[in-house]
Amino acid sequence: MLNGYLDEGWSVGVSNGKPMAASALVRRPRAIGILFPTATPGELLSRFLAFRDRVGTDLGLRPIADTSLATYIQRTLESLGEISAAMKKKNMAVGLGQFYSRKLGLASKESQRVWLGDYPTLAEQRRDAGVGPGFSGAALYEESP
Questions:
Q1: For residue 3, which phi and psi values (nearest 5 degrees)?
Q2: pLDDT per residue as tens, the chain (145 positions)
Q3: pTM
Q4: Structural domains in the chain (count)
Q5: Which residue, of 29, 69, 82, 115, has the greatest Cβ tally within 10 A?
Q6: Sheet holding 11-15, edge to edge
Q7: Are β-strands 114-115 and 11-15 bridged in parallel, bridged antiparallel, or unpaired?
Q8: 88 lies in which domain range?
Q9: Helix, strand, coil percentages for the chain (3-state, nearest 5)
Q10: How far is the first Cα of the chain from the last one, in angstroms, to the nearest whole number?
């Protein structure tokens, strides 16, 4: 898995692992990612950079330049707090339904491989305000095998 942080609390990630059913319970609006199950490490890096750059352009964000251990630990702790808050807000009946639909292979491949959170909505709002190109990330996950 490759993960990077952007301004304003955003994180983007890509992975070539298997979909995790529990991800339905911990999704956050500004922590987005795409799964490319057959990608080689080189392809994964290329897709990560393209995804990060596309999100940055669409939302007017820049990658966080501070790669220190302290910043990594701080971001990890913030992520854990966000996950806890997301789980508290989640309707568990809905969450368990999503979990089991993924666990039993009933969920669509796209819903298991792509989580874009608030990205499409905010990108379109920026376009409507005349400050961005709009949501252009669809091509990235349509290429997902």
A1: -140, 145
A2: 999 999 999 999 999 988 887 787 788 999 999 999 999 999 999 999 999 999 999 999 999 999 899 999 999 999 999 989 988 887 888 878 887 787 787 777 777 788 899 999 999 999 999 998 999 877 776 655 4
A3: 0.83
A4: 1
A5: 115
A6: 2-5, 11-15, 31-35, 114-115
A7: unpaired
A8: 2-142
A9: 55, 15, 30
A10: 16
